[in-house]
Amino acid sequence: MPLPRPDKGLQNLKRYQQIARILIKYGFGEIVYRMNLVSPLRPGKARKKTSIGKSTPVRVRLALEELGPTFVKLGQVLSTRPFLLPVDYILELSKLQDQVEPMPWPQASKMLVSELGRPIEECFKEFDQVPLASASLAQVHDARLLDGTPVVVKVQREGIRKIIDSDMNILYDVADLLEKNIQESRQYDPRGVVEELARTTRKEINFLNEARNIEIFSENFSNEPGVKIPRVYRKFTTPKLLTLEKIVGIKISNVDELEKAGYDTEQICKNGSRLVLKMIFEDGFFHADPHPGNLFVCENEVIAPVDFGMMGTLSESQMNELADFVVTVMSRDARDIVRVLQNSGVVPEKANLKALEQDLSEMIVKYYRMSLTDIDMKSALDDFFAISHRYEIKFQVEFMLLGKALMTYEELARMLYPEYNFVAEIGPYLTKLTARKFKPTNFLKDIMRIIDELRWIMVESPRKWRLITDKLSRGELQVQMQHIGLETFIKEMDRSSNRLSVSLLVAALIVGSSMIMTVDKGVMIFELPVLGLIGYLFAGILGILLVISILRSGKL
User: Fold this and answer.
1) What is the largest CA-CA distance in the chain?
2) What is the span of the domain harbouring residue 516?
3) Is 363 within 8 Å of 387 (Cβ atoms)?
4) How far apart are CA 442 and CA 36, in angstroms?
5) How far apart are CA 342 and CA 549, in angstroms?
6) Which of 60, 128, 355, 527 could form a disulfide with 142 if both were Cys (CB 3.0 to 4.6 A apart)?
7) CA distance 340 to 328
8) Same domain (yes/no): 334, 432
């Protein structure tokens, strides 16, 4: 098995073998062989499939779950990229949950003492040794401060940074093997997906980032009585420890419990929609991990989100792009939608713009005559993402997280109160978003930006032209041409020429050895020249290696 980085890959050889075995188990043997993770001549016991009858998306999810927490997180990242994968894969990957066995209490208490800098008893009146929840990065415990205030304490797993670094090395190697050996995988940008996973995971393992996210959220919703954000206790918060106010409530997905407790589900929907729409369309700072387990309902139908490790942030330019897109969608002009997508730089040059415009027109016609109460946002977004996937439109990750959040919250609203019209609630926020783009202050910013660009052109252009003319006069100006796709052709030519050279060498050895065998001179064994026998041996070894190489490539 060739490893892209032998210095690090050899340390994880057993893990590579485990990955190959699990992938083969779930019916992805061809990918394993094409990646050269195992030899096709020695498939081993792992060829036995235990998932026959299950769909491919289900087998992908089961394989990721068995591969462990890092691969679960990889699947969760992929679930936010509907422009890469079909809808059925996205839906299946969205089911992945990050749950592992908790740390033993001695390890957890050691981490607590190390981070607090003093015994647990000096900081907490009570501390439950059994965690409420346990994930791959951390686990959460119930506790009480010395004054009796109930809190929850998030404790990072011991040595998790080292584990993450090791797993990321493996994932980078797997991504490199995919891009090198499976050409069609390049459109999915394996290395880019791994880089995004590494970036988000490293943010998550610094709990000070999460603490700051909570404080920003708290400030944004300080005047919203229907939303509660837990308080951060900074005194007991470090990069590996997070102490928060305990939220006492019922999970928003437990509809039966909510009804038994006498909660008004319509009011819950109103408060929930206010939370979602404000954080997306007003603040541009939103909860990017919106599964039902992260939302609680407290007294008076107050919504309380928890777990702020994964957030989405929309910059000013992204908010403007979103406003442009909303305006064109509301105008129902497919040509304008294509123009906005092009201006955003998400449409590939090779895309058939006429066909894209036609597909968008058909989608507009499909939903144009529907009343707001009949529109299912999930179906509409699924249709749009299917078009995006067809034309390889690659939206920025923040927009993907936004779309996923909206779909999840709409599903929750329908589950809580089927008559609640979540789509209709979006209308006023979209109007505000579009009006924001046309504010006089924004016009002034645009004008000032244009003036600054013109100033830069006037100042820098003469200098740039002088540099060009100087290089021309000295004969230093060069034109570089790049042949797209030529690298693959060169590699194939190298491989073919190498095989041809080996074939000629084998033939020469056989011919030369045969000639030596006819001469009764030199060192003999069993009345045969030793030199001739050695020639045959080398020819045989090289011939076998050549046949194995051809078989492994899958091309005879």
Assistant:
1) 105
2) 486-553
3) yes
4) 55
5) 45
6) 128
7) 8
8) yes
Q: What tokens does 379 get?
A: 């179906």
Q: Give CA–CA dist 248/299, Å, rounded.
A: 9
Count how many residues are written for the chain. 556
Determine contact, residues 221/278, Cβ cutoff 8 Å: yes
Tokens for 307, please give them.
């777990």
C-alpha angle with apex 363: 358 to 368, nearest 5 degrees? 120
Structure tokens at 10: 């050899």
Q: What is the DSSP string of 392-452?
A: T----HHHHHHHHHHHHHHHHHHHH-TT--HHHHHHHHHHHHHHHHT-HHHHHHHHHHHHH
Count the neighbouring beta carbons within 10 Å of the beta carbon of residue 484.
Answer: 6
* Catalytic-role residue among 7, 147, 189, 289: 289
Q: Same domain, yes or no, for 435 and 459? A: no
Per-residue pLDDT of the chain (556 residues), as tens digits, is 444 444 455 556 777 788 888 888 888 888 887 777 665 444 444 444 555 568 888 888 888 888 877 788 788 778 766 666 777 787 788 777 666 788 899 999 999 999 999 999 999 999 999 998 888 788 999 999 999 999 999 999 888 888 788 888 888 888 888 888 777 677 667 888 888 788 888 888 899 999 999 999 999 999 999 999 999 999 999 999 999 999 999 998 888 899 899 999 989 988 988 898 898 888 888 887 767 778 899 999 999 998 888 788 888 788 888 878 877 877 778 888 888 888 888 888 888 889 998 988 888 888 776 655 666 777 777 788 788 878 878 777 778 777 777 777 877 888 888 887 777 777 787 777 777 666 666 667 767 777 877 777 777 777 777 777 877 777 776 666 666 555 666 666 767 777 777 778 778 878 777 777 776 666 777 667 777 778 778 878 877 877 777 666 655 5
Query: Are 410 and 517 in the same domain?
Result: no
CB 6: neighbour CB atoms within 10 A? 10
Half-sphere exposure of 543 (CA within 13 A, CB side): 11
Whole-number Å distance between alpha carbons of 95 and 76: 9
Distance, CA of 450 to CA of 443 (rounded, Å): 11
Ramachandran bin of 230, using left for φ above 0, alpha for ψ from -120 to 50, beta for the remaining angles: beta
Structure tokens at 48: 């036995």
Residues 411 and 507 reside in one and the same domain: no
| Same domain? 167 vs 177 | yes
Considering the domain architecture, whether residues 444 and 428 belong to the same structural domain is answered as no
Q: Is residue 187 in some structural domain?
A: yes
- CA dihedral sign of residues 51, 52, 55, 56: positive
Same domain assignment for residues 327 and 198 = no
**289 is known as an active-site residue:** yes
Q: What is the pTM of this model?
A: 0.70
Residue 22: inside a domain: yes
Same domain for 515 and 544, yes or no, is yes
Decide if 107 is inside a domain: no
User: What is the total count of domains within the chain?
Assistant: 4
Last residue of a domain, one of 410, 439, 468: 439
Asked whether residue 242 is domain-assigned, the answer is no
CA-based torsion, 179, 182, 184, 188: positive or negative = negative
